[in-house]
Amino acid sequence: MSANLGSIDGVWSRLCLGAVLVLLAGCSGSGKDLPPVPPEQRELAVQQGYFYEIAPGDSVSIFVWGLNDLSGTVPVRPDGMLTTPLIEDMPASGKTPSQLARDLEKEYAVYVRSPIVTVIVKGFIGLPSQQVRVIGEAVTPAAVPFRKHMTLLDLMIAVGGLTDFAAGNKSVLVRYYGGERQEYSVRLDDLIRDGEIAENVSLLPGDILIIPEAWF
Predict the structure, then answer these.
(1) What is the pLDDT of residues 118-133, one digit of tens each?
(2) Rounded to 5 degrees, what are φ and ψ at 15?
């Protein structure tokens, strides 16, 4: 009896997930097919101004030239702050490594003459606005830190590809571009299973990929 209940629960969970994905993909209410990602947004040039910003959960190595006692590797706390010798609470989240280094130099200057600081980020997590999220029928749905020149194929490799239940050619890319929410059709089956490289597109920080389940 318990095995049957477990089986029913599993089917019910999959049906619920499918319903949620249909609502997210939205089908936008118009009943019309979504457009493909426009050519101007496929160009790698749209990513040229991207700089990584430190996020909670990141690990940063701080090197203060000539002062080993002030150097070391520290985590960025969930509140976006970090603690180093002599500095208890330094805002780090949302800064580039160079910006954080300059801010640390100002703080250390109270104690040290002309400090020179270098910051190296390790264990990248990424701010939500600098992640690409995958939900639905990916092998391992996840929030993946965006990296420069990232493409749809790179993202699918990071999440392990499609499940056997995926309707890959009905996938939707949600993008906030120019302050507006936009939805585009992406054909993951053609890209991954048929090798149609023309279906590969450039991604932007903050993109959301929704992969619905096939209804057999």
Answers:
(1) 999 988 899 999 999 9
(2) -65, -40
Residue whose C-alpha is closest to residue 186's, from 140, 153, 143, 142: 153
Best CA proximity match to 212, nearest among 155, 158, 174, 157: 174
**Whole-angstrom distance, CA of residue 19 vs CA of residue 77:** 36
Q: Which band of pLDDT confidence, cut at 50, 70 and 90, is reported for residue 157?
A: very high
Strand partners, 74: 60
Residue type, 209: L
How many whole angstroms separate alpha carbon 58 and alpha carbon 100?
A: 13
From the centroid of its chain, how far is CA 197? 22
- CA 151 and chain centroid, separation: 12
Domains and CATH numbers, the chain: 2-49+128-211 (3.10.560.10), 59-122 (3.30.1950.10)
User: What is the number of other CB atoms lying within 10 angstroms of the CB of residue 119?
Assistant: 20
| 2: Cβ contacts below 8 Å, ≥ 6 apart | none
Q: Above 70 in pLDDT, residue 159?
A: yes
Looking at residue 97, the DSSP 8-state letter turns out to be: H
**Apex 90 CA angle, 84 and 93, nearest 5:** 115
Portion of the chain with pLDDT greater than 90, in percent: 67
pTM of the model: 0.77
Range 64-82 burial, b when 16+ CB lie within 10 A, else e: beeeeebbeebebeeebeb
